[in-house]
Amino acid sequence: MFRKNSSIFKLYFILLIFFVTSAYAIQPFCCFSIVVGKKASVDGAVLFAHNEDDTPPQIVNWYKVPRLSSSPEEFIVLKNGARVPQVSQTWSYLWLEMPGMDFSDSFFNEWGVVIASDACASREKEGELKDGGIGYELRCLMAARARTAKDAVKIGGKLVTEYGYNSSGRTYILADPSEAWVLAVVNGKHWVAQRVPDDEVMVIPNYYTIREINLTDTTNFLGSPDIVDYAIKKEWYIPSPDNAFNFCDAYNSPGSAKNDGNIHRMWRGVNLLANEPYPVTATFPFSFKPAKKIAISDLFSVLRDHYEDTSYDLTAGYQAGSPHHTDESTICAEATQYGFVAQLRDWMPVDIGAVLWLAPRRPCTQLALPWYCGITEIPAGFARADFQNALKNHFNRPEEIYEENPQLAYYQFSIFSEQMDDNYGKKIHQIREKWAEYEMNLLENQADFESRILKIYKQNPEQARMMLNEFISFKATQVREMVKQRME
Fold first, then answer.
1. Domains held by the chain: number
2. Domain membership flag for residue 1
3. Which residues are CB-contacts of 329 (< 8 A; sequence separation ≥ 6)?
4. Within its chain, how far is the Cα of 116 from the centroid?
5. CATH code of residue 287
6. Phi, psi of 183 (to 5 degrees)
7. Widest CA span of the chain, in angstroms?
8. pTM assigned to the model
């Protein structure tokens, strides 16, 4: 399609930007997340599913950043100039980087802490900032310094309290092999966090979902001590005996809370998993009981959803074209850059028990591969440069970054997804059947594979990590070849 002519490729991306920017005027919210507590999952794992959505064109680089050491006098200089003291040692992490983007990267550190986020616009227009505040670097610092999800909440909350958050608002989802938390930050120096119950499921589109809070219950809540008083001061909350404080009601931007795309995606995600149906007009809970124990495949079914068989499916079962080219904000969307399900198990060594099942670009047209926490390197072709260069130049992306590069895996996955849209209804069933067979084989063989690795890990952890490297390198190469064979 665009394999030979880079000028055509550039023109394609210019037109794509125009199309998606126009679509975003109608549907400006896209990211989507689900958390499943360990008592609500099939295998006892904490599960965290996420679709990362950002206006195309984008490039996603995979990096494995090792542990790094610093001297006591070193500082991290934030994008807007604030200086954060460095720690003596940072943890290793897998980094999904979108060059130049402020709020899009995801992280998976050596302790099994997974971090991603959904934009959540707040009411706050005059938040207090110190030296320009903190934004992009917040998730990086949590990933590099946290040993648990709750630890990440405390680190993130402290940074927001010190420097102020320099965007309208956002919810960070933080999961580890034992539990998961959501951290809602507001423009300025206010934040609140809530633990996801072990036996429940949480769904979040692009608005705050934390409701009633109890900051004296530090097992389940953390936050700014004045979170209620500040809302009263701003007249976002009027206290009365029959009007308990509700964080999302007080701090949500009315535009995001009332946006149809947000409401419909929340409704769809909840109803695909809950044990009782909710009308689209419902006040959705922070978390809920699932209809059954949730599996990885269940979550990918949600991440791949476009309201099929509902009144919000504007394609009439794909007869009217691709579900990515409508005015309806779907869970798997035009702007989806990747989808993942983190499988986090606390009864195994984290190198093997924590796995990121990742589907690049749109998950409906790609298969998911298991990226184990213990890998020490990324297969060739999954990044443009090395992690040192990326750390230094994240906001200095080169002009040629979107030019045709068939050696780069993400370019290949992206073009394949676009080609699927050309005749989505005819192609999708065939490709999903093929990918589903491959994924099922991975899942069915997972226990045997991990059993073999565990035996070696007990005697020689380094050798086991090398085997994980070989496994993902082989599978990634195999999948790239499968995609190449199916490209037009």
1. 1
2. no
3. 26, 27, 29, 30, 259, 260, 261, 262, 264, 265
4. 4
5. 3.60.60.10
6. -115, 110
7. 68
8. 0.94
